[in-house]
Amino acid sequence: MALYVWQMCLWKVVIIFTLTEAVSLHLDQPKVLLVSFDGFRWDYIHRVPTPHFKYIMENGIHVNQVTNIFITKTYPNHYTLVTGLYAENHGIVANEMYDQNLNKTFSLDGMDIFDPVWWDEADPLWVTNQIQGHKTGAVMWPGTDVQIHGLYPTHYMIYNISVPFEDRLAQLIDWFRGKEPVNFGLLYWEEPDRSGHDLGPENPLMDKVIADIDLKLGYLVEQLQKAGLWDTINLIVTSDHGMAQCSINRIIELDLYVDRELYTWIDFTPVSAILPKKGKYDEVYNALVNAHPNMTVYKKEDIPDRFHYKHNVRIQPIIAVADEGWTINQNKTAGKFTLGNHGYDNTIKSMHPIFIAHGPAFKKNFTKENMAIVDLYPLLCHILGIDPMPNNGTLKNVQELLVAEKVIITENLHVEIVSQDEINSRGSYAWLGILLGSVLVTGFLLAFVQQVTKSQMSGLNIHRGEMAQPLLST
Q1: Per residue in 347-378, pLDDT tens?
Q2: Do 256 and 316 belong to one domain?
Q3: Which is it for strands 327-329 and 251-253: parallel, antiparallel or unpaired?
Q4: Could you list the residue ranges that cross the membrane (predicted)?
Q5: Same domain assignment for residues 324 and 443
Q6: Residue 53 in contact with residue 355, Cβ under 8 Å?
Q7: Catalytic entry in 20, 50, 72, 74
Q8: Mean pLDDT of the residues in the chain
């Protein structure tokens, strides 16, 4: 009888430890899918019917105005989304860069973008996620095909513009459902940025492009539902920037004001990064500072603090910032002109991106008026339950987007639902599993001791002699 009691109690302990591990694992493995539709301006959802965007907004959250970082370009803002840092801190200060210390150039048209030296000033979320024991899947997100701090994402696709959206999504879903599933996925799509540049955002032809993005979002939701992921995954749909309408009649020609032999043109428009030749700094600055009423020229040390854009060697000694809708070229025949562009002052509304989210971590039918893009990173870390790296964001600023976290224990163990009224600021669910597991194990161990004691007491005369034997022989 005593042996039977021992076995039953041990089985209870094993079950509880298994349950505790399962609960802890479940709580430690929330899932996040971060999607970027490049150049999706915040107000595009209002100009044509976008039922799938509206569906997520009604069943999740929506932020009306997201202030991205300066400069409002693709690479700087995509790196901010996954680091929570301003450009001056993460080092990807533009799409075109020159580092005087390294004597190296970064250009989207070359292979330099794969050199880790450009990216190693920060720790993107996929690196931190993997260092802390998890797995990441990345589909063409800027920087994910670079070995940053010695690590690639667990799974990743090298950038290839010809791969359809549907194929990109299918690969991500496979990674989320694999034998060793990822907990964090990133998905990038080039539109509507490409069409916005070519057509201009105010062109009626953009309506069809926006409607197609809505269809792609609907397809994404449908596929997550089919895969059984929709109710457990936290989906965040955002972008890096918006788009402003440009005109061939709004071009600032640098050649009219300064000899191009006096400087190197590092980055172009609408924020021109200018590196004067040796001994020509004052001449170049003085020629440009009051050259055009729609262009503001700064010495590096005078760049406004609100831009967070001067404390990095990759920021050039002089920058020229065009007003919204204006283009800076050397002349009307040299340089690139597009009908739509971005990169302007990050307080301009046309530069702001979309931001919606849905999932177990988020409230339903909730709208927040504004947020800063740097605050997304601590939010992501909190949802994923990982410790963030130093960043410029603040979780408190976006905490109202989240529901109170809950832990549910199975009914057959007669444990009630435990709610957490205050969200854990450290961003980890693990302590809840540990706490509940400890309580459950302690309770069953007490029951175990009680059962064994009763059994021993009932057979005390039988075992007394055996118990009286010394523990060690002499």
Answers
A1: 999 999 999 999 999 999 999 999 999 999 99
A2: yes
A3: parallel
A4: 429-449
A5: no
A6: no
A7: 74
A8: 86
Distance between CA atoms of 313 and 311, rounded to whole angstroms?
Answer: 7
* Cross-strand partners of 356: 62, 237
Active site residue 74: yes
81-138: per-residue pLDDT in tens?
A: 999 999 999 999 999 999 999 999 999 989 999 999 999 999 999 999 999 999 999 9
CB atoms within 10 A of CB 364: 11
Q: What gap in Å lies between CA 208 and CA 215, rounded to an integer?
A: 11
Domain with 57 in it:
31-85+122-243+347-397
Instruction: Identify whether residues 306 and 276 lie together within a single domain.
Output: yes
Give the residue from 207, 245, 206 showing the smallest Cα distance to 339.
245
Domain-embedded: residue 193: yes
User: Which of 75, 85, 83 has the alpha carbon at shortest distance from 107?
Assistant: 75
First to last CA, the chain: 33
**CA 370, 374, 377, 382 torsion-angle sign:** negative
Structure tokens at 233: 């995954």
Q: Are residues 335 and 235 in the same domain?
A: no
Do 172 and 316 fall within a single domain?
no
- Quick one: how far is CA 287 from the chain centroid? 41
Residues 312, 376 within the same domain = no
Tens of pLDDT along 185-205? 999 999 999 999 999 999 999
What distance in Å separates the CA atoms of residue 293 and residue 176, rounded to the nearest whole number? 52
Which residue stretches of 312-400 are H helix? 376-384
3-class SS at 184? strand
CA distances (Å), origin 346, targets 171, 317, 379: 34, 21, 21
Interatomic CA distance for residues 361 and 397, integer angstroms: 16
Instruction: Note the pTM of the prediction, 2 decimals.
Output: 0.83
Residue 467 lies in a domain: no
- Distances, alpha carbon 361 to alpha carbons 24, 161, 216, 273, 399, in Å: 17, 32, 23, 41, 10
Task: Considering only the C-alpha atoms of the chain, give the largest distance between any 2 of them, rounded to a whole number of Å.
Answer: 110
371 close to 62: Cβ distance less than 8 angstroms: no
Is 108 within the bounds of a domain? no
What one-character DSSP code corresponds to residue 404? P
Q: Do 236 and 363 fall into the same domain?
A: yes
* CA dist 28 → 11, 239, 295, 434 (Å): 25, 27, 50, 11
Find the helix packing angle between 430-458 and 2-28, rounded to 10°.
Answer: 180
Report pLDDT digits (tens) over 287-335.
999 999 999 999 999 999 999 999 999 999 999 999 999 999 999 988 7
Q: Which is higher by pLDDT, 296 or 443?
A: 296
Lowest mean pLDDT among 83-97, 203-217, 411-425: 411-425
Cα separation, 77 vs 92, whole angstroms: 9
Structural domains in the chain (count): 3
